[in-house]
Amino acid sequence: xxxxxxxxxxxxxxxxxxxxxxxxxxxxxxxxxxxxxxxxxxxxxxxxxxxxxxxxxxxxxxxxxxxxxxxxxxxxxxxxxxxxxxxxxxxxxxxxxxx
Length: 99
Description:
Layout: H1 15-27, H2 35-46, H3 48-79, H4 83-87
Helix pairs in contact: 1-2
């Protein structure tokens, strides 16, 4: 809250950023000079950059997991020439298994 009071009666988590922005805005000749302070305040309120970073990390994690799963599937396809081979009833080279 821009007033500085949070729900619990104390200062809100973003009040310090609001004060920095307000101080800059009062002293600045052009409002655009205070853009970094305004961006910091908006980030504190809405966490847009933090959410975007978390989403990018999650997307990369999912992409890597899918890549590893596809690679694992390729390996499994190469290793299994059929159900009988994977069970071990027939040797790969065509030679029969002797016991």
